[in-house]
Amino acid sequence: MMKVCVVMDNGFEELEAMGPIALLRRAGLDVDLIGIENDSVTGRFGVTYSPVIPMDAYDFSKADCLVLPGGPHWQKIEKNEKILEQLRIFAQDKILAAICASPTILGKLGLLKGKRYTCFKSMDEDFGGEYIYAYAVTDGNLITGVSVAASIEFAFAIIEKLMGKEKCDEVKQSIYYDAAH
User: Could you read off the pLDDT of 83-140 as tens digits, one per residue?
Assistant: First the structure.
């Protein structure tokens, strides 16, 4: 079973974490919740995940994909050298996914150079790639999402990359009401 780790700190954007976590698990992926410093994390609107695996106790080598939700926690994440090192490693040969504010962390690390990407529009800088205003953008092993409104499409992009279009379509069918049937 493929493993996904979702890395968060206090202040994460709840919908950018919860939506993808639920859909990735619905697809049958093994999803680990990782806290940067603690064994619990609380989002910007008070939702707490507890327990989460403290980052120092987690074996990132066992994960196939690292997901970074957005939210105000991005400012703490971009200063944490341990997680920045993991982002560099995942960018090389695994799947790296970031949404809203979090792709800017990748941009500042130089990981968006030559890539098509999206992020929260007002946070886009010249990261050396091509900014695309879309809910989700996949370029090679990099998946980016534009904002909280894109959480579901972002999750589908991750599922499709890890498990293929057929599995992604199956998950879509399981959540969308089709009045014709």
Answer: 999 999 999 999 999 999 999 999 999 999 999 999 999 999 999 999 999 999 999 9
CA distance 62 to 2: 9
Read off the pTM: 0.96
Strand partners, 44: none
Q: Do residues 31 and 2 make contact, with C-beta atoms less than 8 angstroms apart?
A: no
* Phi, psi for residue 37 in degrees, rounded to 5: -125, -25
Of all residues in the chain, the percent with pLDDT exceeding 70 is: 97
**171 Cβ contact list (under 8 Å, min separation 6):** 23, 26, 27, 156, 159
- For 149-158, write each residue's pLDDT tens digit: 999 999 999 9
Is-contact 71 83, C-beta < 8 A?
no
Bridge partner residues of 3 (DSSP): 30
Residue of 17, 3, 5 lying closest to 48 (CA atoms): 17
Hey, what long-range contacts does 57-60 have (CB within 8 A, 24 or more apart)? 58/5, 58/32, 58/34, 60/5, 60/86, 60/89, 60/90
